[in-house]
Each structure stands twice: as structure tokens, then as C-alpha cells.
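Summarise this fold before class:
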Amino acid sequence: MNNKNKARCERCGKRLKKGGNNYRLECHIVSDFDGYLDASATKKSWQNIAKEIEQSGLTEKELEEQVYFKLEQKLCLDCRSEVINFLKGKS
């Protein structure tokens, strides 16, 4: 069997056995609007906002990830446990 066809944990690289304890992580982090708009921000023109974005030095991908981030990975049992413990604040 070709090594490229063997599924691996995308976090630690451990080989995932067919029919074994394999997991799929799907993570979406989305910007939340709290209903508040800063009065000074609403007075800015679109040109000024575009200029601030250009001066930030952030790439298009970095700017996009500030609003929406998505991650999908295959995980082994150990990495699943570590991720869950981290999310529960137990790491």
C-alpha cells in the first residue's frame, strides 16, 4: 500500500487505523457584533477605512480570518482528548 493513501492525524501525524478511533474536527470562529458602533468610526469615510486597512500591513487572508476562521482536521484519539481538554480549560 502506498504511504500517501494512509490516513494520518493532521495534528500529530499518527497513523489513523481503518475502523479505529478516528475523529473529524470542525472549528468555525466568527466575528460577533455586540450592537455598539463607535461614533468616531461612523464618521470615517470609506477612503479613510481603506487607507487604515492598507497601512495595517495585514494580508487579505489575515484580515479575513479576523472576521471568519474555519479549520477542519482529522484527529486521533489522543489529539481529540487534548483538544477537548483545552476547550474545557483543563490543559
The helical segments are 39-42, 46-56, 60-67, 77-87. Strands lie at 22-30, 68-76. The radius of gyration is 20 Å. Residues 50 and 56 are 10 Å apart (CA to CA).
